[in-house]
């Protein structure tokens, strides 16, 4: 059995740590590229959302390298992601790709079915060891996100442009060579040290932009044309509330252990979107409000074309824009998105934010709408 | 003077109107339904709604605009789920918020949440909440709700017998089935959301066109719920969308029948659920049968001529198949 999994930003590091620790044989698909997307677009339904297409591309590329089993997470709606596993199964079946899909989710048939899936994956495993693996893997996820946050801070402030990107790029190479959560954590520590030693302009007060939207497109840097590095190198500090570790801790661990979750965003979203409607719509709305209250200069929403929950969010965002006087830019991504047009919009938005700060006296009456 | 409740003639109007109508009228409210979909309403909707939304949602915005200045209340309940353990499209859940933040100067919106995911009893809870705006008597609301439910069940029964909502919602038409000389009647299943299927403006009178071409129409509403559930229980993962379950179950049932000549899947551009269900349905039909299958996608730019051409070509192909002993490609 050779396992593979779909890419989503830095999740591969967490997945790698887990599979290494469990001692399983696996293939990491080549990182997302134009090729991945083209493969996926060819075989996936035209109107499916972008992540599904990229996933298919990942599987086909991993299949070429000998993978025969896919692990993904699932859900039970109303967002389409919950039915990804079945779509993947059907598409691969019609392609004659003989791959098994194991969905890590709480099945309708309850605990026995879940244990059967785990057993299929990991053989008979000591529950104590499993708990330890979960703990270590969660730590890896948390530390990777911590590291990423560090790059958000250093990029706009670095004295020598490009130093952060250089270190961060090298990190992705090194982490692939490490094996198991212990070695990976070591690499993360070393990288964090390197990042902290970059000479920074501490006087600088960079513009701050919050990134909100659908989880895949905001997290996966290939899909969003490395928006965080892009803004960072323009001298803008970014923040993104939705992270992989956040998802693991809030949605999986806290739910499983019945610990109350951090619901600040839901509270903030209440006047605009009263209920959870699936996907990350409520997070998008809530975090936008929180960013506005924290004095961020702007917010960028990113989502894949036809994403149902984010469309609802997008139509509500102008109300927040109006109420708080914070510019919001919506970027929608699909396989046809051209990089040049995308860059132009981001640059124009960054210019608008700069101008607003330079002219505080008329700032509020200035053109707001970035979408 | 009785209060006027505005109901946009869009989305779940086509599924629940008898229920809503009886309920509000029993409580002494006056019902105002927006006008039939027209170019104007569609254009208004497209202009006011975000570009990325699907056609039915845009259309809904148009209907709200059509109503908003002539009613005391707008009835836009927050539909989270209409059946146990199942969801509907997330856009329904956010609809009252979408509308509220799009238009200015709206009358009060009745945005009670309707969530039957945990238990069907929640429907009565929702009814009590909605009704409290019109009367203080819980008994009166309960009575109105039970009467409305009865009318609703009668409506479902009529749909099952092959009547269309328009046939008994004030726009009665003579709809004779036209038999074409020398041709036998075709049985064609038309799969699609109620609000695409039963809004004859938006689907460019698809159903009438089929009927006039000698076609017997079979819709999801005509297929027994039990058959659908039995078929769906064989799926590897439970379908968690209400429409998805009904559509996939119907398609699987159609594959068992030998009297179906073709399947038309009517989807609207940008519909998240259709993008999956349509693909799953198509794969099943292609894999397990040689029933002709066509997808008709509608959006605000659809041209009627193109639609006609596709329907005619599809029907011609089926008829030639019968005449020429199946030597024509199934993939229209």
From TrEMBL, chain A:
InterPro entries: CoA_activase_DUF2229, Dehydratase_Activator_Redct. Residues 8-239 form the DUF2229 domain. It holds the Pfam family DUF2229. This is CoA protein activase. It comes from Clostridium thermosuccinogenes.
